[in-house]
Recover the amino acids of this structure.
């Protein structure tokens, strides 16, 4: 599988909604909500696609979105989903890194998100990226009544270092 990340386009909506409904069975967003998110000037949505996939249902490997109102210093990771066939290869981490990089470009200092309390894989990923738990929203995810863990990240500054010198040295 060869995966490319790019900005989501209106033409991606159908594939995004298929994955949304498959991933978030009981609390999937509506198509209208997702369309508004994709079209919002304050949003930054990415898709991870495998354009070489022969099966059209295996082209969209994942998506993720950031809400960052202009002029503010805080943003929210709105959603992230990785297709079952693409899990375990680091795609979720890659999507999150891309959103954090975009947050940095937008001069955000903090990112927030909510994660289902019954999703330890996602929680572990977010913690490994530096997100810290700030609270619990009881019964947030409906209709299941599952708690949401609220998390926060201080957006780290870009790491810059000099380019590595050539292979050998001339002495």
């Amino acid at each position: 599988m060869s995966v490319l990340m790019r900005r989501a386009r209106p033409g991606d909506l159908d594939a995004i909604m298929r994955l949304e409904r498959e991933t978030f069975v009981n609390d999937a967003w509506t198509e209208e909500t997702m369309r508004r998110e994709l079209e919002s000037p304050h949003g930054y949505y990415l898709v991870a696609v495998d354009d070489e996939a022969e099966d059209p249902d295996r082209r969209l490997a994942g998506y993720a979105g950031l809400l960052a109102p202009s002029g503010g210093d805080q943003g929210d990771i709105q959603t992230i989903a990785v297709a079952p066939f693409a899990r375990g290869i680091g795609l979720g981490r890659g999507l999150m890194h891309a959103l954090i990089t975009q947050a940095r470009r937008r001069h955000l200092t903090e990112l927030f998100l909510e994660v289902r309390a019954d999703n330890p894989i996602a929680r572990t990923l977010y913690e490994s990226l530096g997100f810290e738990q700030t609270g619990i929203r009881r019964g947030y995810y409906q209709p299941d009544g599952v708690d949401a863990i609220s998390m926060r990240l201080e957006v780290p500054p870009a790491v810059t270092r000099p380019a590595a010198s050539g292979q050998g040295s001339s002495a």
In short: Strands lie at 4-7, 43-49, 60-67, 74-82, 110-116, 132-141, 146-154. The chain has four helices and seven strands.
